[in-house]
Amino acid sequence: MSSVESHQEQLSQSDPSPSPNSCSSFELVDMDTSSLYEPVSPHWFYCKIIDLKETWIPFNSEDSQQLEEAYDSGKDCNGRVVPTDGGRYDVHLAERMRYAVYWDELASEVRRCTWFYKGDKDNKYVPYSESFSQVLEETYMLAVTLDEWKKKLESPNREIIILHNPKLMVHYQPIASSDEWGSTPTEQGRPRTVKRGVENISVDIHGGEPLQIDHLVFVVHGIGPACDLRFRSIVQCVNDFRSVSLNLLQTHFKKAQENQQIGRVEFLPVNWHSPLHSTGVDVDLQRITLPSINRLRHFTNDTILDVFFYNSPTYCQTIVDTVASEMNRIYTLFLQRNPDFKGGVSIAGHSLGSLILFDILTNQKASSGNIDNEKGSPSIIMDQGDTATLEEDLKQLQLSEFFSTFEKEKVDKEALALCSDKDLQEMGIPLGPRKKILNYFGTRKNATVSVKYPRLIYKPEIFFAFGSPIGMFLTVRGLKRIDPAYKFPTCKGFFNIYHPFDPVAYRIEPMIVPEVEFEPMLIPHHKGRKRMHLELREGLTRMSMDLKNNLLGSLRMAWKSFTRAQYPALQASESAEETEVEAESTSEKPNDGNTEEISVAVKEEIPSINVGMLNGGQRIDYVLQEKPIESFNEYLFALQSHLCYWESEDTVLLVLKEIYQTQGIFLDQPLQ
């Protein structure tokens, strides 16, 4: 007698009709069922490797239905390709494989699933193979039709599945004999739960995404391959950002959705880290890396050194070429797959990624012409502080007597930087002064990173920077002030969004208006108003100041100042004047005697600030509200603050709000 037959006999003898008490690991429900057989409803899943473990994830309901329709079409499946996940993945039906469309990613196995099993230690149900699921379904059909249960069958890997009744089906793994470690057959033979149909397992199946795409946003990552504290890739983080946006569209743009005015915004990741580190630089670094503290040194080589790479002329060129070419490639592919797309394009960058995009945008050409590479740098259109004339430079070198010579030859500072020793000699400049001039202007020329910035084949509408060090890098480069009249050649909008505790983030507005001190715009909470702890803190501060300055004169008036609403944060993207009007119109009607007082207070809190044309006259710096727990220790949450933007509803809502405002579509209710 085989071991399988012996095991079957043991099962039938020891437990001919298992009771609920004797099968505590089984999921037992009411035994009553109809004797009529109904075919199982399949659902399609794909397999992902998460934490070195296979995890089966269901397609959303619309994608699964499309895959099932293609499967049932009866046509030859060899050439059938079904777009899924909003067109970001293609499923090759014959291969049962899922491929990423816009980025490099390992292909995932796809399966048409009808039967599932789960052990006591498993978190999720695992689908059986399609062929064995068919065997299970045929056995189940016979059992229901003939009303003959306790059916036993063997899986391909010689495991036993027993169908006791429609609600109680179990899967026994092979029972091993006791060994020197003392393991017993009871422990190793603990059964798994078997379920038929996806509706009988606990799994979240989401609805599909809107087919209409209103806007496309490219998202560029910062240093290193990981983008958050869970060490996830830019693809996974952008997936979160996209999911948050879909939820917010349903809650904050409900009217526009009901009127079919909007579809969704597509966010696509742009990866430049992998191409940079595939140039062979990692091998060169490994040769010179010390063997001690290996993990820390590997982390440094893989992440922090990206900042130094960007300041290197050689690798900076590689990075900007990769980012621009990837965005152009993805944009072209996107249009091919979405020929009816009529929306605009925006770009977003996190950390160093925002600086890369800033430099690319700065060096675009406003005129539509040949898409050629152009040499340039932010110094062309910004005040670097190096505004000295040629005459002043020569005076500093104590060579003022030669200014008339250069003036006669019509040689300015730029032309002088291109002159050779022979050129200066022909102009009659002696050897000593020649050496001084060549050294002075040659050093300045070499100090500037010479990079040819590629042209984008589209004009971005808005540039969003998350946790951006742009301000710091511009200052280090010697840029003391951004001309208020300056704006990107091809991009109208610019929003610098940051968490107040983000150690990498810097402001932009003080570089445009250095003579005025003012606060950034406070981003409203996605549920409205400020967080309670911030209102409490500011209310106490106002009450203290009012009492100190003897402005109210009574406890009643002090209490009114404590409960007075804060208005600067109501409409985050509007100008100061629009914010003031909104504040006065949305505030509660005060007592007649206090109307003028509150109006004056609001006007004092919202001064009119001109921050230039970099964001079309609107404010540029926008700060998130910290959570209550974060306010207890800002150092403890500093790193987390730099990586918080991917799942921040407040950040995503501001992005959606600004994008849809360009189309004349607004939030259902203004945030307060």
UniProtKB/TrEMBL annotation:
Annotated spans, Disordered: 1-24, 571-595
Alphabetical list of Gene3D superfamilies matching this protein: Transcription Factor, Ets-1
Ranges for domain DDHD: 456-661
SMART domains: DDHD, SAM
Family in the record: Belongs to the PA-PLA1 family.
Domain WWE residue range list: 30-112
Protein name: Phospholipase DDHD2 isoform X2
Compositionally biased intervals (Low complexity): 12-24
InterPro entries, sorted: DDHD_dom, PA-PLA1, SAM, SAM/pointed_sf, WWE_dom, WWE_SEC23-DDH2
Compositionally biased region (Acidic residues): 575-585
Residue ranges with Polar residues bias: 1-11
Species of provenance: Erinaceus europaeus
PANTHER family reported for this sequence: PA-PL1 PHOSPHOLIPASE FAMILY, PHOSPHOLIPASE DDHD2
